[in-house]
């Protein structure tokens, strides 16, 4: 009788549902904490879950919208709001949302409890999926960007961060891992065991992760209070040695630069049999394609171990940029991916001779300039308002043009001031969200310089600015700068008797007084600017190549390759015998 009454009640409520959100959740209900228990057997193609979501209803609501995809929830949920305990109808809507329909309008802190079933797909690489490796079954997860909803009814939005407390029930022969440290493991009478994990710091749903299977574990040396492990398929534990050594090498460098100890307790690196990305930066449980992370004993060499360190530097950099401080919306994904790309280059530069600083970053910039000058380009920042648009969130423009903009800001503002501003940015938004505007505000407070016009010019506008310079020493000594292609561009230059000076050009030309009449001037000091220098024959002929840094010579080679003039070819002919192989190779290719 009660079941029939509930079904009638649910039907009435469902009929009264308002239209679902178009894409983004409305924001009038925010999560406070998720407590989840999952039942997972890697040999089976489905799982069950139960969860409690603590929420705060900010304004009167009779329907709570959650994200959910390919989940089958029970028809009712239990909701507690103060002293009120109620059953609420649950309905899947549009294959992206789950509606929790309350019997009245409520506000304030509430707890939603519900049960559901989901799929463990053996073909997909999103949500929770499974793969067979050498006869053994494993379950992995990839939730970025909007796929946590395939495993949890949740608020699948970057801005709605909350702690997660996860428990996994699985057959006793399996191991399970998640973002938090394992706290207890209890055998149960039915041949399963329940593994509980510590509650996490506030996380966006896309960075929640778990894995279940007969994994091997390579234990890395712990640093301070941060245990580190490499988790591999069964029988492959020894292949995690290089990855473990890389993690031990990188962590103190990242802590030193950010000024903040690693913020997520433990740090596991897990090898995936299959995935849609080379790696995903889930805090405490970074996942990588096995072929990118593992190296068979006896096959280690300089190239493959460096590649592992480079990849780990990117994903470990995310632990601060993207995980601890998360972009507030998808249009600012560059705050995660560009920072991780930029800081990984910085970490790898520490392995190079001092003169080789920025060479790898400049090569990355040149590659993305090729895209930015093509019809395929698009702004670094772009709104995402549909599942289709979410598929293109992770793109090389966001990673590489974004990181090149950071390199330019660092060269313009000064390395120490830039670092101090980033430390403030991380501290002020710890375990919260941030926007491009927030970053600009931190840079202004730390340096006294308003970077907002530059951020807009390079993040919201496509294309590559072009800069020209002319020294005039007739009536007075001065440098005439001209630029096209940007509303605001920091141009840094140095020359004969002229130390590095940076000018913010917010118009097509600027005249700069000089204390002397230099015999030469180089218009991208340090090689950090995201622009082309259009060299005329006379200033190019006066340029003393031997007085330029390797970063400046590589930037010059790229600029001249784009010019293809007779004067450019003369300088390229000299650069093809440069002691730095990247410069010589670029010059030779340009002369072909």
Could you describe the 3D structure shown?
This protein is α+β, with helices and mostly antiparallel strands and 592 residues long. The chain folds into three domains: 1-128 and 142-183, Immunoglobulin-like (Sandwich); 325-459, Neutral Protease Domain 2 (Neutral Protease, domain 2), CATH 1.10.390.10; 466-591, Immunoglobulin-like, CATH 2.60.40. Helix content is 30%, strand content 31%. Strands 1, 2, 3, 4, 5, 6, 9, 11 and 12 form a nine-stranded mixed sheet that branches. Strands 14-15-16-18-17 form a five-stranded mixed sheet. A four-stranded mixed sheet has the order 25-22-21-27, with no helix packed on it. The longest helix is centred in the middle third of the chain and has 18 residues, at 241-258. The N and C termini lie far apart (85 Å). The relative contact order is 0.07. The model is unreliable at 1-14 (pLDDT under 50).
Helix residue percentage:
25-40%
* CATH C-level category of the largest domain: Mainly Beta
CATH superfamily of the largest domain: tricorn interacting facor f3 domain
Kindly, what is the distance between the CA atoms of the first and last residues, rounded to a whole number of angstroms? 85 Å
CATH architecture of the largest domain: Sandwich
Q: What is the mean pLDDT?
A: 96
CATH fold-level name of the largest domain: Immunoglobulin-like
Label the overall shape. globular
Question: Which regions contain 5 or more consecutive residues with pLDDT less than 50?
Answer: 1-14
Total beta strands: 27
Number of contiguous helices:
15
Biggest β-sheet, characterized? 9 strands, mixed
Radius of gyration: 27 Å
Please give the domain count.
Answer: 3
SSE-based structural type: alpha+beta
Strand content: 25-35%
């Amino acid at each position: 009788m009660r079941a029939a009454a509930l079904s009638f009640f649910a039907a009435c409520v469902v009929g009264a549902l308002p239209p679902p959100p178009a894409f983004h959740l409305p924001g009038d209900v925010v999560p406070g904490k998720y407590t989840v228990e999952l039942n997972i057997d890697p040999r089976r193609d489905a799982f069950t879950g139960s969860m409690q979501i603590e929420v705060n209803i900010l304004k009167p609501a009779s329907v709570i919208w959650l994200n959910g995809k390919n989940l089958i929830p029970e028809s009712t949920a239990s909701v507690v709001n103060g002293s009120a305990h109620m059953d609420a109808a649950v309905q899947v809507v549009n294959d992206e949302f789950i509606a929790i329909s309350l019997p009245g309008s409520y506000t304030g802190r509430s707890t939603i409890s519900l049960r559901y079933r989901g799929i463990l797909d053996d073909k997909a690489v999103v949500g929770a999926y499974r793969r067979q490796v050498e006869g053994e079954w494993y379950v992995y997860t990839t939730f970025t960007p909007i796929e946590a909803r395939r495993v949890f009814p949740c608020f699948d939005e970057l801005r709605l961060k909350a702690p997660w407390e996860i428990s996994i029930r699985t057959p006793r022969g399996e191991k399970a891992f998640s973002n938090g440290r394992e706290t207890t493991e209890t055998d149960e009478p039915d041949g399963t065991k329940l593994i509980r994990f510590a509650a996490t710091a506030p996380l966006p749903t896309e960075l929640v992760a778990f894995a279940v299977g007969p994994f091997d574990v390579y234990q890395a040396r712990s640093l301070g209070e941060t245990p580190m492990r490499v988790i591999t398929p069964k029988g492959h534990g020894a292949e995690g040695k290089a990855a473990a050594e890389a993690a031990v090498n990188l962590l103190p460098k990242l802590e030193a630069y950010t000024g903040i100890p690693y913020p997520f307790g433990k740090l596991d690196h897990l090898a995936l049999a299959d995935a849609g990305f080379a790696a995903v930066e889930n805090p405490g449980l970074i996942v990588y394609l096995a072929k990118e992370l593992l190296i068979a004993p006896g096959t280690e060499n300089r190239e493959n171990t460096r590649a592992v360190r480079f990849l780990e530097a990117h994903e470990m950099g995310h632990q601060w940029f993207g995980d601890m401080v998360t972009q507030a919306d998808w249009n600012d994904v560059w705050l995660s991916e560009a920072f991780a790309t930029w800081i990984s280059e910085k970490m790898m530069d520490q392995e190079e001779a001092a003169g080789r600083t920025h060479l790898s970053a400049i090569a990355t910039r040149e590659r993305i300039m090729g895209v930015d000058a093509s019809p395929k380009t698009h702004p670094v920042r772009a709104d995402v308002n549909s599942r289709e648009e979410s598929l293109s969130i992770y793109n090389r423009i966001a990673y590489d043009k974004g990181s090149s903009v950071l390199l330019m800001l660092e060269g313009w503002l000064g390395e120490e001031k830039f670092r101090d501003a980033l430390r403030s940015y991380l501290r002020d938004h710890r375990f919260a969200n941030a926007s491009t505007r927030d970053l600009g505000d931190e840079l202004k407070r730390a340096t006294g310089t308003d970077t907002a016009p530059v951020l807009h010019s390079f993040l919201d506008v496509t294309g590559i600015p072009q800069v020209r310079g002319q020294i005039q020493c007739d009536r007075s000594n001065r440098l005439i700068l001209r630029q096209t292609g940007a509303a605001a561009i920091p141009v840094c230059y140095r020359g004969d008797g002229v130390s590095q000076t940076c000018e913010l050009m917010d118009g097509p030309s600027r005249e700069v007084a000089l204390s002397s009449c230099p015999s030469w001037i180089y218009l991208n000091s340090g090689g950090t600017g995201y622009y082309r220098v259009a060299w005329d024959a006379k200033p190019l002929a006066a340029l003393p190549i031997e007085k330029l840094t390797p970063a400046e010579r590589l930037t010059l080679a790229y600029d001249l390759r784009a010019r293809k003039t007779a004067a450019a070819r003369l300088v390229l002919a000299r650069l093809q015998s440069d002691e730095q192989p990247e410069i010589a190779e670029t010059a030779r290719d340009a002369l072909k």
